[in-house]
Fold this protein.
Amino acid sequence: MATNMAPHNLREVVAAAQHLLAHPKADLDDLMKFVPGPDLPTGGIIVGLDGIREAYEVGKGSFRVRAKVEIEQISARRQGIVVRELPYQVGTERVIERIKDLVTSKKLQGISDVTDLTDYESGLQLVIEIKNGFNPAAVLDQLYKLTPLEEAFHINNVALVEGQPVTLGLKPLLEVFLKHRLDVVRRRSLYRRTKASDRLHLVDGLLVAILDIDEVIAVIRSSDDSGMAKERLIKAFDLSDIQATYILEMPLRRLTKFSRIELEKEQNELQMIIADLTDILENDKRLRKVVGDELTEAAKVFGNDRRTVLESDEGIVSAALAVPLEVEDDPCQVMLSATGLLARTTGAVASEFGKKRVNHDTIRSVISTSARADIGVVTSAGRVLRLSVVGLPALPENSVLSVAGGVALKELITLDKEERPLALMTLDNPDSTLFLATAAGIVKRVAHDVPTSAGDWSVMRVDDGDWVVGAMQVVGDDGEVVLISDDAQLLRFDFNVLRAAGRAAGGVAGIRLSDEAILIYGTVVKPHSDCVVATVAGDYGALKGTAAHSMKITPLSEFPAKGRGTGGVRCHKFLSGENSLVNAAAGNSPVHACGSTGAFVETPEKFGKRDGSGTTLRKPVEAVCCAPDQLP
């Protein structure tokens, strides 16, 4: 005969028992308001409340227990399923062994590693690492189906009642328990009353004897033996045999120390105890109250909060029905922030780029691609590094364009000491070309030529002491090149004057720079009424983050176009304490700016004159960005 009773929450069981004490005719529905289901010591989630009700009704039933898990970003490249609570009587070793067997036999896909990080401080922590390209929710659904992360628990409530095994539901179980507790309290009260009555009888005898202690001593001393002394005490003081024996056996030194006041106090206390115990024995309502109070105290001392979550079958939706196992190659957009964070969207939402204030970081580059594609990261060293989109953190749908919650690019690719990321590019658009500009004023238009399997490749030969300051992937020949130097010179010319060249070819002169001047920004824009130029002036020799900056936003149309290789026109007048441009950008308005930590910096609302000075900012600007003209 198999007996299997599920653990329950002490506080809930006590509450149900107290209700049944007060309302003996309560039905199962009333009791289940207090005891909705088992509460397992290992926590977890119970699924299938119909089986619990059946067990509470007839004594037999079953339910499913699921592990409590969280889907987290466990590394820069990978998501994982972190198990915090396991089903009752399931250990981590059993789960790990089952997962390994399923992965080896190819019955379970999408798992790259399983690590047990359980310790005494953080508790249970089983990390299941998910491969890139697989939906963690769908993998979790498979784990529930194939591993002990979901287990069935069968209830068989068999108890010995009057020596006979009986299968009991919830109410009969509570009734048998309460009957036992009532019997225990009744017998205990009877025993205590008997003990108190016996003691009271002795105290009454002592009070009689102590009133005339000298005569008691004289009677004892004048008697020939103890038997004669007991008979004379009984006759002289009207004592019972027990009282006289107790006085005779008591040492004289103890008898003399007794105080009448103390004995009378003890007498009163014993009388009150006897009266209270008699009330419990003769009053059924009082007896039930005592049982209820004792249960309350037990729950207060030993009870704890519920650990197990209860969910109906309707509340559990199979992930496999809603989410495919592998991530679909759906359209998405990938964003690179000014501080080097990278993230992807779950859909095409960048049409609203720049229309909302972004409170965290600014978007340096954004491209349209798909979830299972590869993209390129263009760097200041003139090379492109291949990166898989599917491993990037996905932003929630309909979220404001921001990379808050993104991953640091340096955790995904390896850059040289002075190398920094400039822009993103798609690798599967043969109609596009890549525009590059260097600090020495050299520009290049690179034809689409992506190596099949290379992890990184060079797109421009950069001379020693030079570096790429601007990069932009462009579709078609329309647009204008905008170059801005640190001595506040701006040059714009038609993009179509640049001929596409191969990756190994060198660049051509883009802007004629004055002595010691360098190019700080270069891009390709499509001029229209919303196209602006943002320039930030400061002190080139000041300690980074200490000097105030001034910023000016000017319509691009204010600057006349000139030919390639010319010197351009003045775009910013320096204020006192300023000697160079420290940042610049060109593109669609509005303009976003941020500090070194990514905190938002307010930008001027009014346009400035073409060669005018800027508006002093409250905080130094680390990066300034405009919305791109196109999303390759």
Q: What stands out?
A: The first strand starts at residue 45 and ends at 47. The chain has three domains: 68-148, 192-283, 331-627.
